[in-house]
Amino acid sequence: MDGSxxxxxxxxxxxxxSVFTGKIKCLCLKSQTCDLVIGNIPGASLGPTPEVVAVxxxxxxxxxxxxxxxxxVPVLKNLQVSTVDLQHFQREGADLQKxxxxxxxxxxxxxxxxxxxRYQVSRGILYRVFQVxxxxxxxxxxxxxxxxxxxxxxxxxxxxxxxxDINKTTDRVMSNF
Length: 177
Prior knowledge:
This protein folds into two domains: 1-47, no CATH class; 83-174, no CATH class. It is built from five helices and six strands, in the order E-E-H-H-H-E-E-E-E-H-H. By secondary structure, it is α+β, with helices and mostly antiparallel strands. The model has no long low-confidence stretch (mean pLDDT 81). A four-stranded antiparallel beta sheet has the order 3-4-5-6. A two-stranded antiparallel sheet has the order 1-2. A hairpin with a 4-residue loop joins strand 1 and strand 2. Helix 4 packs across helix 5 (166-174).
């Protein structure tokens, strides 16, 4: 719902609400924004029509006949990267070669005071695995130099990203890459 990509458990839930009643498969999210979100599912209705009370401001009245400015949405090109493409970029790029060597040697590298990092190749793709004792491992795809700009644009400029600041964009990228 926030534009991030991840995995979630699926549960069969018995729902009884004003817009839908019945059993439906639902995704169980860790940090949900509400109890239940009902989207395009067969049998769902729009619910009762709410009473609308509206006021037209002077600015709205003045601009009602003017054409609306179109929403400027950046065009995100070159987003079609297959698994084979990613494997090729990782293997051919000089920037990731030392990490392939660390993965082959199965070495752990210290990161900070207590954390460690190891590199692994799974199904031909290079990953960085960040480990802190007592916490779940964080597995990140190692992004080759040729694809880094695409990842940053996707995390920052796309409509679903919310055009967040540098810290939130960095967190979004670091959660998967």
